[in-house]
Amino acid sequence: MRERSGFGALGRRGVVASLIAAASALAMALLASSCLAKDAPMSADLSDVDFFTAHAAALFAKALPEAKVEVKGALALSIALPGRGAESLWLNNVYSFCLRNPEACEEGLVSHVASMAASFKAPDKIERSQLRAIVRPAAMVEAADKAYARRGGASVSERLIGGLWVMCAQDQPGAVAILNANELATLKLSREQALAACKQNVAAALPPLEPFRRDYPWPGVNLVAGDPYVTSWLIFPERWTAIAESVDGDLLVAAPANDALIYANGRDNDAVAALAEAAAFVAARAQKPLSTAVLRWTPTGWEEAKP
């Protein structure tokens, strides 16, 4: 089960110029493969799901010329590489992104195809060094468990807080593959050992916890981005101490997309509602929305914050 992430811009009513500039810059960041985009026709009416699915299949066939790509249904593809069994691939997330951001649809789809094609080319063998802990919504855990149950497997996951869960995944070129418990025997790890290894590896791989941009999209709100595993910082609340101290010890954090965090000082009466508004704006423009929930930091962990 593979997934690919992306994030959009933040915004607030009343800062229209900033929104337009930020949205344009981040939309351009979706251009991951100019060779694919050059010949790809712009998607037609997005209400035509069959056209969208066929268009995505054509892009995958071009990116993976050695593979057999078949349309299995609306937003469902089957991709088989020589010597490997066919794998199912769903387009629900990227299609949802397109419906919410039609002007950036083609670039987002091309980026998605390029990254997924790289992951399909990755070796099947999994190694302990590839394990990573990621933060995902409960719906992702349920989907993975349902998909893997057909083969007697399940996700390797545990609840973090609220609707957010920690999942074990395999780091692949251009993608993140959700770990199947069936693979633990190959790794010679128990479920608990795998979760510990996933957390240890992602902690070592994460860049420093610092703002990608301060006072964005308005004074007092900060964006943390630039790494596909950035939301994994939520797994380590003890490492937020310095940032919490920088905002008078009242720290609010949200994870609106798989690779984007925002945080702010929570001392104002409307701070929770304001950060929730920013989170909703990001989630609405993200290829992989995560959550609009606002969390409050404490020395012993996170608490759910309510407006």
Separation of the first and last Cα atoms: 36 Å
Low-confidence stretches: 3-43
Count of runs of 4 or more consecutive helical residues: 10
SS-derived structural category? alpha+beta
Described by the principal axes of the CA atoms, the overall outline is globular
> How many domain units?
3
Task: Please bin the fraction of helical residues.
Answer: 25-40%
**Over all CA atoms, what is the radius of gyration?**
20 Å
Average of per-residue pLDDT values? 83
Task: Please summarize the sheet with the most strands.
Answer: 5 strands, antiparallel
Number of separate strands: 13
Strand content: 15-25%
How do the SSEs run, as a string of H and E?
EHHHEEEHHEHEEEHHEHEEHEE
Assembly form of the protein: single chain
Write the layout of secondary structure elements.
Elements: E1 2-3, H1 16-28, H2 34-39, H3 49-63, E2 68-73, E3 76-80, E4 87-90, H4 92-100, H5 105-120, E5 131-137, H6 138-149, E6 157-161, E7 164-172, E8 175-178, H7 184-187, H8 191-205, E9 221-224, H9 241-246, E10 251-257, E11 260-265, H10 271-285, E12 294-298, E13 301-305
Antiparallel strand pairs: 1-8, 2-3, 3-4, 5-7, 6-7, 7-8, 9-11, 10-11, 10-12, 12-13
